[in-house]
Design a protein that fits this description.
The complex is a heterodimer of chains A (86) and B (634).
Chain A (H helix, E strand, L loop, with lengths): L1 E4 L8 E7 L3 H9 L7 E7 L6 E5 L2 E5 L1 H4 L2 E5 L10
Antiparallel strand pairs in A: 1-6, 2-3, 2-6, 3-4, 4-5
Chain B lengths: L2 E3 L15 E5 L5 H9 L16 E7 L2 E7 L11 H12 L2 E7 L3 H13 L4 E6 L1 H6 L2 E3 L1 H8 L3 E3 L8 H9 L25 H8 L7 H19 E3 L6 H8 L5 H26 L1 E2 L7 E2 L4 H19 L5 H6 L19 H27 L2 H13 L8 H9 L1 H6 L7 H14 L3 H11 L4 H25 L8 E4 L7 H35 L3 H15 L7 H6 L4 H6 L8 H13 L4 H37 L2
Parallel strand pairs in B: 2-4, 2-5, 5-6, 6-8
Antiparallel strand pairs in B: 1-3, 3-4, 7-9, 10-11
The chains are: A alpha+beta (86), B alpha/beta (634).
């Protein structure tokens, strides 16, 4: 198992949230949308040109700005194919 | 049964209002729909988070009693993270009983707020809303066990159909609700005054708003929510539905972008086609329409109203002050509804014959976009672009509302997280986003010279919108939060809710616009008789004719636009403008001082200091834009 950020998840790749960065306000907003420690998330879509990433958490889609997604640390399988955070 | 009446005791401002029953829940769980069910009052409900930014109050009659019901704006937690949440928190403090509306399809996301609310110690009932959708998705919730774990009544509801609503009120008004008056059968409380059967929350409540411990308490709540959900919820396997496939496609990096472009193009075309059809009874790109039916507002005015007005004109002798006031000037010996400018001719034709059709078609399309749940998806694709002007994608929602009327658009900026974003969005709406009434006139006036003329006006305003946004991004200071929104599932719009929303919005236009339009024409005609405009035109000729290249009389429509923009545009008609002058006139009218209603709401939302700043920016921008068009266009 290795740790990457949610912004680096490959298409359809799943991961478990390990920790959240950013200030308490940002963390609180993330948690209130279900992006909390221990949750499974999946990369549904990542919009080009540094656009937001759409994550599936608890069967709901949540759009997260790229910078914010970089503050979500997730644990993923080690044998993943690497993906650049464009 | 639930008997209801609408209340005229609506508070004018956001004073503290003591609700008997307060509806609290996260954004987009159906609070406004439930509120309409309880009170019989119409509210604007849509399928995106943040539809209700203020609150609505109404009266509900049930079992012989009358209760004040208040619909709070959606809030994710009891931390005041945005303006809407602050409003909700104030309402909770003053409320007698809380109905916590919860989305049954995403229990784990909604229970944290429920636990926070329970910790407040107020009488509380949980409405497990959208339980039909939950059933459909194969989600089973053990209601009895949930009640035991939470210690409050839980009632499954479907606000859209009314299922379970009577049971919900019954539960809310029964004496069994924990926390209702400490006197009767209320639960035992611990020494800190919190209900004793929520020991897991005592710590959180004690640590509330003492920043350092906040996130620890947060973690505890999440753990507790996980335990509760594991115990009460069973998920049955179900196949990907068609709408879920479409949900995935519309956020797909490539496919979703194409869908966004198609949706936008379709939305604008449909607004134009329906609007044009309702005005003229015909549809076509330009020139002769493809087909024509013998109705539409123009044919209707000609067939039914013209004979009456012609008689009136003749009986008034075709001239004189009263004739001028009621019928206006005859153009080539006959009444011209667009140019005569009498109270009963142009005064009725502009709002009813030219603007109303576009108000209808605009709000029809907007309501469909709102109710299906497409808007948050559009925000995802516009996010990167909108970062260039200091905003994130969700600022498109107030902006689109502003294309209907600037007033609700500026109010909707409350869904944005901080003051800087609200200032940028509201300033941009008030300067560069023309309302539907003005757009209808632009299409009517400029469209007669060709579609490219209309496109040019829109194009220039779009460039202005971007340019001012880029400048404001540099000129303002503060943190710019990133996009973070929930994307709701697609839903089939309910015809009843759609009709109700259309009725409110179109009716609102008639109630608010018609009296002001008539008053404006009256004032203009009286001032014309008194020859006042002569002096105003001479005084402003330096800017209006020398710098902008417009006839100096154009100052009158620009000033009149402050009352109602469509009347300002209506006064361009008799000025015999060249195409260049028409384009720059329409652009300048859009930008030049917001209408009085918009100004009032700007003052309320931004305060006088920022409204002054916005006004300064507006003046600089309109002088520069008018001059630029005049210089660049040969």
């Amino acid at each position: 198992m290795i740790e990457i950020t949610a912004a680096e998840l490959a298409p359809d790749e799943e991961g478990t949230i390990v920790s959240l960065g950013g200030g308490p306000g940002a963390q609180s907003r993330l948690r209130s949308l279900g992006l909390a420690e221990g949750r499974r998330i999946r990369n549904v879509s990542r919009i080009g040109w540094g656009g937001p990433i759409v994550l599936l958490v608890n069967r709901a889609q949540v759009a997260v700005g790229r910078g914010m997604a970089r503050r979500i640390v997730v644990r993923v399988r080690k044998d993943r194919r690497t993906e650049r955070d464009g | 049964m639930v008997e209801s009446r609408s209340s005229d005791r609506l508070p004018p401002k956001q004073d503290r209002l003591a609700a008997d029953i307060l509806l609290v829940g996260q954004p987009n769980v159906g609070k406004s729909v439930l509120f309409s069910r309880l009170t019989g009052m119409r509210t604007i409900a849509s399928n995106y988070p943040g539809t209700t930014v203020g609150f609505a109050a109404g009266a509900m009659r049930f079992g012989g009693g009358s209760y004040t019901v208040v619909d709070a704006p959606g809030t994710y937690s009891l931390e005041p993270l945005d303006e809407a949440a602050r409003v909700a928190i104030d309402l909770i403090d003053a409320a007698g009983l809380i109905i916590n509306v919860v989305d049954a399809t995403h229990l784990e996301r909604h229970l944290p707020l429920t636990l926070e609310l329970i910790a407040q110690g107020k009488p509380l009932v949980v409405a497990l809303n959208m339980s039909d959708e939950a059933r459909h998705l194969g989600i089973e919730i053990n209601k009895e066990r949930l009640e035991e774990l939470l210690g409050v009544p839980v009632v499954p509801t479907v606000a859209r159909t009314g299922e379970g609503v009577v049971r919900l009120i019954g539960a809310a008004l029964s004496r069994e609700v924990p926390g209702r008056g400490a006197q009767a059968e209320g639960p035992a409380r611990d020494e800190s005054g919190h209900p004793a059967h929520h020991p897991h929350l005592a710590h959180h409540h004690a640590g509330e708003r003492t920043n350092g411990h906040e996130h620890i308490a947060d973690d505890r709540i999440w753990c507790r929510v996980g335990e509760i959900v594991d115990e009460v919820q069973v998920l049955r396997h179900h196949h990907h539905t068609v709408s879920q496939r479409f949900e995935d496609a519309s956020v797909h990096p490539f496919l979703g972008g194409i869908i966004a472009l198609l949706v936008l193009a379709a939305a604008f075309s449909v607004v134009r086609v329906i609007g044009e059809f309702l005005v003229s009874g015909g549809v076509g790109i330009s020139g002769e329409p493809w087909f024509r039916v013998p109705f539409g507002m123009e044919p209707l005015f000609d067939a039914a109203w013209r004979p009456l007005m012609t008689k009136l004109s003749a009986s008034l002798g075709g001239d004189g002050f009263i004739h001028h006031l009621l019928v206006g000037n005859l153009i080539d010996g006959r009444i011209d509804f667009k140019q005569s400018f009498g109270l009963l001719t142009t005064g009725l034709f502009v709002p009813l014959g030219m603007v109303l059709p576009y108000i209808f078609s605009f709000y029809l399309v907007l309501s469909l976009l709102e109710d299906t749940g497409y808007l948050p998806r559009l925000a995802v694709f516009l996010d990167t672009g909108m970062h260039r002007i200091g905003l994130h994608g969700y600022a498109i929602v107030p902006t689109l509302l502003g294309l209907g009327c600037n007033v609700p658009g500026i109010m909707a900026t409350r869904i944005l997280e901080n003051r800087r974003q609200r200032f940028i969005t509201a300033t941009l709406i008030s300067i560069a986003v023309p309302c539907a009434a003005l757009q209808a006139m632009i299409v009517g006036l400029a469209g007669a010279r060709g579609l490219w003329v209309v496109a040019l006006v829109y194009g220039i305003l779009f460039v202005v919108w971007i340019a001012i946004g880029m400048i404001l991004k540099i000129a303002t200071r503060g943190f710019l939060p990133e996009l973070l929104i929930e994307i709701p599932p697609y839903r089939v719009p309910s015809i009843g809710a759609l009709a109700s929303k259309m009725w409110m919005r179109v009716g609102g236009f008639l109630r608010e616009a018609l009296p002001i339009v008539l008053a404006a024409i009256l004032v203009v005609n009286v001032l014309y008789e008194l020859n006042v405009f002569h002096y105003v035109a001479d005084a402003s000729a330096g800017v209006v004719s020398t710098l902008w290249g417009l006839p100096k009389e154009a100052i009158v429509p620009l000033l009149l636009g402050i009352l109602r923009k469509e009347m300002g545009a209506g006064m361009f008609a008799p000025l015999a403008l060249t195409t260049k002058q028409l384009v720059s006139g329409c652009v300048i009218l859009s930008m030049f001082f917001p209408c009085i209603a918009t100004l009032v709401v700007l003052l309320r939302e931004l305060g006088w200091r920022d409204t002054l700043k916005a006004t300064g920016i507006m003046l600089a921008a309109v002088v520069a834009t008018g001059a630029a068009i005049n210089l660049i266009w040969p």
